[in-house]
Amino acid sequence: MAEKSNDPAVIWQTMIGEMEKGFNTFANQAMTSPEFSRVMNQVGGVSAGVQKQLAELMEKYLSSMNLPSRAQMVGIGERLQIIESQLNEITALLRQNNIGGGRDDQPLTPRPPRTKQPPSSGGGSA
Amino acid sequence: MSAAPGIDLQAIPDRIRTEVQRAIQRSIKGVKYLSTSGPSLGSTPKDVLAVRGTMNLYHYRPIAKEVYRVPVLIVMATTNRGYILDMVPGMSLIEFLLKRGYDVYMLDWTAPRPEEKSLGMEDYVLDFIPDCIRRVQRDSGETDVSVIGYCFGGVLSLLYGSIFNDGPMKNLVCFTTPIDFREMKLFHNFSDRRYFDVDRLVDSVGNVPPEMILTSFEMLRPASRTASQVQLWDNIWNDEFVKSYRMFDRWATDTLPLAGEYFRAITKDLMWDNKLHNDAMSVGGRAADIRNINVPILHAVAEHDHIVPYDAAKPLIQKVGSTDKEEVVLKGGHVSLVAGANAVKRLWPKIDSWLGVRST
Predict the structure, then answer these.
(1) Mean pLDDT per 10-residue run, chain A (126 residues)?
(2) Is A122 inside a domain boundary?
(3) A46: which of B64, B72, B128, B152 is 20 to 30 A away, CA to CA?
């Protein structure tokens, strides 16, 4: 076997790792300056404003085309998730009724006893 | 002609053969990678106990024959999804805790809807967490509840514990929880009050978009995404590597938006005024001084955490009023502390040994 220090694959991986570390360190140093913060926030502020205006424009366009926007589709997706969750709750309640004969003090699913002791005190199982 | 020292000429054909095989595998598996989705995550069986807008409370179905008396509520960070703690069987903290006999609940978050932009810190600390605690009490039949908070979930748990310091929280475990926000140097600089107009941002966008959150995380290590993609290509022949890469990459990019008012409070109270560290924090007009916390507390921090550096997390144990308190510094980073092979070896057994004796 070739020594690890001479293995091209190992050399390549080490080089990538070192480049990553070096670039991150260099960038982190640059990013701690107030000047960086000023420029970043100027650009970010403009970009957020432009994005917002673009999104509003796009929404108007989609509305005029009688099409839903991405935000509306995400909203529908989330509402579907809520419906699924409510179905889960209904299913759990039905299960509860089957297990506990409809009594409120019964848990949703059969539960193990709350008697476990830590291993050092001689009781309990993993 | 002689070989350079350290080079075994006889091994070269084997090495070439291996590399050619890997190159072929890269092409085949590269196509497969693009045409398939990753492993299914967060699949430990659970019941949804409550959904209220962004708040989701799950109960994981117990798998041990007997469980500890005190149930555990995990409070997830508001920027990310809870399935980081429930990746796949064998790589799931939830599954580990269930096997060790804990009754596990999780407060997880979904993206706040546009109309939830007015949710503030008080909604999270004085409403969502107490509501979940009450539901856990009702569901488990127990008064005491242990709380585990991850990253900003730890901050919310601390704020909750400092206000409701007469119970019912019995134990508190925090993972990588920042206290001194000045020590999160890059985030602190990104949000420099002289240049970052948080009011303008929140007033114009409502909820802070996930892309912005993700970009600010990625800027902490700007070369890492490219380097990890090079590593993926190098190792795409290795199914285990690819599976792990997909799990973590999917989670890391699955960032949640933050409710506008909540983000405004984080920026002003924590990033700018460092109120948690300066013992000046209040939530909804109620003082939230972490020196009031007196329950047993464990704080697990990572040696190489680039998001919450050790100096930002260190004051937690120094400040809390508890007499039973412990800080443990483990190898790893912000994510590898809680998930992956490193966590399986280091953090998980530590949680079990610490929490087990305090859960009866």
Answers:
(1) 64 82 82 81 74 77 82 78 77 70 56 89 44
(2) no
(3) B152
- Is the residue at A36 inside a domain? yes
Tokens coding A95: 């299960």
Question: Contact B354/B170 with Cβ under 8 angstroms?
Answer: no
Residue A121 lies in a domain: no
Does A98 reach chain B within 8 Å, measured CB to CB? no
CB B260 within 8 A of CB B118: yes
Task: Say if B254 is an interface residue toward chain A (CB within 8 Å).
Answer: no
Enter the tokens of residue A122: 């001689």
CA-based nearest residue in chain B for residue A5: B6
A33 plus A46 within the same structural domain = yes
pLDDT tens track for B60-72: 999 999 999 999 9
Mutation site for A-interface testing, chosen from B51, B72, B195, B224 by largest number of A Cβ within 10 Å: B195
Residues A93 and A78 both lie in one domain: yes
Structural domain containing residue A79:
68-101
- Domain assignment present for residue A113? The answer is no
Contact B318, B291 (CB under 8 A): no
* CA distances for A114 relative to B3, B71, B222, angstroms: 69, 9, 48
What ipTM goes with this model?
0.73
CB B136 within 8 Å of CB B71:
yes
